[in-house]
Amino acid sequence: MTRQANSDRGRPELIKAVPVRHPWRWVAVAVLMVLAAMFVNVLVTNENFQWRFVFEDVLFTPPVLEGLRGTVLLTVSSMLIGVTLGVLLAVMRLSASPVLRLISWGYTWFFRAVPRLVLAVLFGNLGILWSRIGLGLPFDRELGALFGIPDFHAQFWSINATDLLTGFVAGMLALGLSEAAYMAEIVRAGIEAVDSGQSEAAQALGLTRGLTLRRIVLPQAMQVIVPPTGNETIAMLKDTSLVAFTPVSMELFFQLQAISSRTYQVFPVLVAACLWYLVLSSALMVVQHFVERYFSRGYGTRARARTRSPRLSSAQPDTTVRNTA
């Protein structure tokens, strides 16, 4: 009896679990729902949006579609220049040569400091510096003056500067060269995120530095490089509107501004611009999602979960049933 009483006295009571209340969470949800309803009400009931004019006379007109094509082309070409030159600058920044490191640092310092709008206007006026741009012997005029030949020209090919530096080319160079400075820092961070033992092991196997970078380092660094590169691509898409000041006629915002100046409808045209940039940015976000998922295979919580709990084979459930029986 004593043992039974002691065992009953020492038995713990049942725990009464009380769910945690979150009243302020529901208050925040209610406030946000009211604000969202107010925003939708403004979109539907306010006649100043002029949705019919936006969809019928702005969004799908031939000049706007031509500007849309130019915006996409400008985004792709500028990012190609930025990524290619950014990788080269990152490798130079990590080089053992102090001259290469200094050049890479100076390039990054300049193009990160100057606003892209200023660069676009600056590159649009580069024709002021030279009348013609060509390829040939450097310092040909100085060498001719040194040897008493005032009209000496050693250019193999040349073109008028205004013909070469068109608005599109000037805007593309301004955006691409500026993007290269940011991509250099992104690629450098990705390369430095890879463990140095990977490069040492590759060198021990006899791989050259270039092959080690292409086959060993960069593939592992892509999971660090890809997410900010996707963000930079979306930012580049929006920054293409800056080349309207170059000016570039084959650009979305330029064409929309032309419609606004012709019809005197400022706000509806700006709404149309927001709609097109939302569509393009959303498409890039979807592409970024799949690219990130491709390069993050084998990393992250999903990969660790697969490693800890592999899928059971078809024979394992039958074995479990037999053992249970």
Tell me the strand percentage band: under 5%
Mean pLDDT: 82
Strand order of the largest sheet: 1-2
| Gross morphology | flat
Number of helices: 15
> Major sheet, described briefly?
2 strands, antiparallel
Structural class: mainly alpha
Contiguous low-pLDDT stretches (5 residues minimum) are 311-325
Helix content: over 70%
Structure notes:
With 325 residues, this protein is mainly alpha-helical. Helices cover 72% and strands 3% of the residues. The chain contains 15 helices and two strands. It has helices spanning 2-10, 23-45, 51-57, 62-93, 98-113, 116-124, 140-146, 161-164, 167-193, 196-204, 209-239, 252-263, 266-295, 300-308, 315-324, and strands at 132-136, 155-160. A two-stranded antiparallel ribbon has the order 1-2. The longest helix is centred in the N-terminal third of the chain and has 32 residues, at 62-93.
List the helices and strands and how they pair.
Layout: H1 2-10, H2 23-45, H3 51-57, H4 62-93, H5 98-113, H6 116-124, E1 132-136, H7 140-146, E2 155-160, H8 161-164, H9 167-193, H10 196-204, H11 209-239, H12 252-263, H13 266-295, H14 300-308, H15 315-324
Antiparallel strand pairs: 1-2
Helix pairs in contact: 3-13, 4-5, 4-9, 4-12, 5-9, 6-9, 9-11, 10-11, 11-13, 12-13
